[in-house]
Amino acid sequence: MMNQQLAPGRLAPGRRVYAVGDVHGCADRLFDLHSLIARHLTEHPCAKPLLLHLGDFVDRGPDSARVIARLSLGSPLRGVPMVNLMGNHEWMMLRALALGGAANAEHWLQNGGDASLESWGVPEGTPVAGWAEMLPLEHLAFLRDLRPYHVLDDYVFVHAGVRPEVPLVEQSWHDLLWIRGGFLDWDWSLLPEAPALVAVHGHTPAPEPELRANRIGLDTGAVRGGMLTCGVLEGDRIGFLQA
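The structure assignment produced for this chain is given below.
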């Protein structure tokens, strides 16, 4: 039985969100976690479940291509809608593929893009201008369609976080995908138009999930030897599944 505790926000009756932290090419862990989620849903049916991934599907780990291949087919949970958010690593990847140039390529490669290219079978030494044509079109379409955030009831799901006291529609992509300072150490309401909104995010790894009054951190460093974590939000409670 999954242990639950009081969450800092609330979902409407009948709703449940399975929010998955940073995958970083750890395909086997992700697939195992999806199996745990499917089992949990079978044992504890819910009227309106949602599977949500918080971004950073690619880089550093060995199997970025397998991760994207699986998710580009649609939800792995039959009948369960899926929302996928963009992380800073997808942003770096798309920028390198779309714009090319030595600076964009090096920025991505220095942050684990070399492992992603290897997983797609791109030979070492291939010019950056040739990278995109070696990736399946459906994989590129999946990456380009990733959302910057998702709002549901008391929660805003976002990869890195939000800039405090800036309305959500005015948030910069850079903050949504990269922010740490000014967000992680902020102890008050985050968004002026919705003071009770709680951010559910990844991006900043920690040994265990982090629960604060205004945010929930779900990156537990799967690619660094930690666990891949799914936060299970329902009503005013949260529990965790890990693989």
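Interim note for the steering committee: The longest helix spans residues 102-119. The chain is about 30% helix and 20% strand.
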